[in-house]
Each structure stands twice: as C-alpha cells, then as structure tokens.
Design goal:
The structure holds two protein chains of two kinds. By secondary structure, chain A is mainly β. Chain A has strands spanning about 5, 10-15, 20-25, 30-40, 45-50, 55-60, 65-75, 75-80, 90-95, 105, 110-115. In chain A, the strands form two sheets. In chain A, strands 2, 4, 5, 6, 9, 10 and 11 form a seven-stranded mixed sheet that branches. Chain A has a four-stranded antiparallel sheet with strand order 1-3-8-7, with no helix packed on it. Chain A is globular, with a radius of gyration of 13 Å. In chain A, about 35% of the residues are buried. Chain B is about 0% helix and about 55% strand. Chain B is built from no helices and eleven strands. Chain B has strands at about 5, 10-15, 20-25, 30-40, 45-50, 55-60, 60-65, 70-75, 85-90, 100, 105-110. Chain B is globular and about 40 Å long. The chains are: A mainly beta, B mainly beta.
Chain lengths: ~120, ~110
C-alpha cells in the first residue's frame, strides 16, 4: 500500500475565511494526487487532479479560483478553500497513486471542514 | 462522461450469509475496477480490485467478477461478519485513469 496523511483532520472556521488542507505522501514520491469531496451519506466526487510542477486539472463544475491547489513537491499537495461558506462544509479527502502505470489509489484520512 | 451505477443502495444480511453488490459502467475503454470499504468517518480502504484482462479475482471471503461484454462487475462477500458492516463503493478508471465512484452501498450484517 501507501501511507498518506492529511492535516488537519478537522477544522471549524467562520464564513468568509480561507482554509488550507495538506496532503502528504509519506513513503513515495507522487507526481499525481487527487482531491475528492464527500458530503454526508454520499459518494466521493473528484474535484481535481493535482500535478507536481504544473497546474491542477479541475473537474467540470469545480471553481478553480475557489479551490486552489498547489503541488509544489513530490510529497505534498495543498487544497485551499477560499472565502469558505457553509455549503463548503464537507469531508475532503486526497488520494495518491504510485504512477508508472499503477492505477491503485490510496486515500488520506480526510479532513472534515465545518464552516459556520 | 463516464458513469457508474451501483446497486443496491442498502443491503441487510444475516451473519454468515453472502452479500452481492453490483455496478455497471458506461465506458468500454475502462480497464481497472477497484472496490473500497469505508467505515463511518474514515477513509476509503481498498479491499479488492480487478483489471480487464481477468474475469474473476478472489481474496479469502471477498471476490470480484467482471463481465466486460455486459459492462458490469460485482463484489461478493461470503460468510459475512458484523465487522463487514460499512459502506462499499465501486469505481472505475474510465479511459482517463481518474476514478469515478458509484453511489455506494450501505451493508449491514446482523449478528
């Protein structure tokens, strides 16, 4: 498998503030990381693909200016929720795969965001 | 785009019985089909996966079957135990390598 960490595990913030979530690949270098959002009792929805050294690729309907993704190193990707609103409250999960043709994705523990 | 349909949405079985969850997909180029188990508030955990060059894969009490002609794949859990209770998600990689998830199945195993 792979060891993936996320920080913080949960965060509560006021409406209008920005929140940064970190995703780290602890045991291998990941050129690609994925960010998902999961609302209660729903499935995982892919938000964007984070590419090391280049711009992230966003899924249709996901605002790139609201969900800023930075993949500055091979072990770290960050997702910043800008000007958060209550409807952004959700479970945000990242995943990584080893690349080199391997499709298996390993998930981080997730970050629960609550916007008041 | 790629679409994955998962059924049933909920499944309740008695301990020891078998459970079957089915998924259908739309992209004929899909070649990788994982299944994840997610317990409440936790991360999805890969439990088994299958690639398009095989029709069945088994790992102890868990098996996955794939029918590429019909574009569906199924998860089979035998001799279910209470600790199997969780939400199960199927997924497929389409032709892009990005995972598209099914809607999820809440499995309840009654002691």
């Amino acid at each position: 498998g792979a060891v993936v960490s996320q920080h913080p595990s949960r965060v509560i913030c006021k409406s209008g503030t920005s929140v940064k979530i970190e995703c780290r690949s602890l045991d291998f270098q990941a050129t690609t990381m994925f960010w998902y959002r999961q609302f209660p009792k729903q499935s995982l929805m892919l938000m964007a693909t984070s590419n090391e050294g280049s711009k992230a690729t966003y899924e249709q309907g996901v605002e790139k200016d609201k969900f800023l993704i930075n993949h500055a190193s091979l072990t770290l990707s960050t997702l910043t929720v800008t000007s958060a609103h209550p409807e952004d409250s959700s479970f945000y999960i990242c995943s990584v795969n080893r690349g080199l043709g391997e499709e298996t994705q390993y998930f981080g523990p997730g970050t629960r965001l609550l916007v008041l | 785009g790629e679409n994955v349909e998962q059924h049933p949405s909920t499944l309740s079985v008695q301990e020891g019985d078998s459970a079957v969850i089915k998924c259908t997909y739309s992209d004929s180029a899909s070649n990788y089909f994982p299944w994840y188990k997610q317990e409440l508030g936790k991360r999805p955990q890969l439990i088994i996966d299958i690639r398009s060059n095989v029709g069945e894969k088994k790992d102890q009490r868990i098996a996955v079957t794939l029918n590429k002609t019909a574009k569906h794949f199924s998860l089979h859990i035998t001799e279910t135990q209470p600790e199997d209770s969780a939400v199960y998600f199927c997924a497929d990689s389409g032709n892009t390598g990005k995972l598209i998830f099914g809607q999820g199945t809440t499995l309840q195993v009654k002691p």
